[in-house]
Design brief:
Layout lengths: L7 E4 L5 H12 L3 E6 L2 H12 L7 E5 L5 H15 L4 E4 L14 H29 L2 E5 L12 H21 L5 E7 L21 H13 L8 E4 L8
Parallel strand pairs: 1-2, 1-4, 2-3, 4-5, 5-6, 6-7
């Protein structure tokens, strides 16, 4: 894409954590940004902070639930109505339920799959025509848990293994239309994910601005080159 000035991005789950870090990085590059959250208040609060960062571009908050296709479509309609284009989509919204398979509930399984996997399917289905028109970029946020399994991770592993494979297949489907598709697979990130409360003890972890920087690098890369799957790890995790 080269310069990102006046491009338009939609980030699901963009009111906090990794999604918000990506939104901050894109705003600083001159990108208009829409962030979604299941909470209208959280989406609007995030947009207010983002708008304070630059007077040259605009951030908008949208209440939307990735688990609901109609909700996703409505969010996209709002973005197109405001900006008349969509260049970058970051499917970031995700949750984690971690429990032994004997204790994992049916609701926890369903919510994990519906959010982390089906929600991304809804994200691409609702944005694909706009991205084909702009020859844009679709990025999913998977996890190192998308290739590395662990105890008590059956639902999360299933969702992220599925997301990693899904994204790679979509990449093959859409590159013929000039749409680039990548998945980013972070390890430990300093966020509020799964009840974590980030503090100084998280300094060794990947920071949200690091993922934001990576997204900027991806979308600015020469169109002839596509890093389709990127694993990201902390440089120096604590010794065990």
């Amino acid at each position: 894409m080269g310069t990102l000035k006046d491009k338009v991005a939609l980030i699901t789950g963009g009111s906090k954590g990794i999604g918000f870090g990506i939104a901050q990085a894109l705003i600083q590059e001159g990108v208009n940004v829409a962030v979604t959250s299941r909470s209208e208040e959280a989406a609007n609060d995030a947009a207010k902070v983002l708008n304070a960062m630059s007077s040259k571009v605009e951030a908008m908050g949208i209440q939307a639930d990735v688990r609901d296709f109609d909700s996703q479509q409505n969010a996209v309609r709002k973005v197109l109505a405001r900006f008349n284009q969509l260049d970058i989509v970051v499917a970031n919204a995700g949750i984690g339920h971690f429990a032994n398979i004997e204790d994992l509930t049916l609701d926890q399984w369903q919510e994990t799959i519906d959010t982390n996997l089906t929600g991304v399917f809804y994200s691409i289905k609702s944005t694909v025509e706009a991205l084909k028109k702009s020859k844009g970029y679709f990025i999913t946020i998977s996890s190192l848990a998308g290739t590395n399994f662990f105890a008590n991770g059956s639902a999360y592993n299933a969702s992220k293994f599925g997301l990693t494979g899904f994204t790679q297949s979509v990449m093959l489907d859409l590159r013929q239309h000039g749409v680039k598709v990548s998945t980013i697979m972070p390890g430990s990130v300093s966020t509020f994910f799964n009840g974590n409360d980030p503090d100084a003890a998280d300094a060794w972890k990947i920071q949200i601005e690091d993922i934001g920087e990576l997204v900027v690098d991806l979308v600015k890369m020469n169109p002839r080159t596509l890093p389709s799957k990127i694993e990201v790890r902390p440089t120096m995790p604590p010794g065990k």
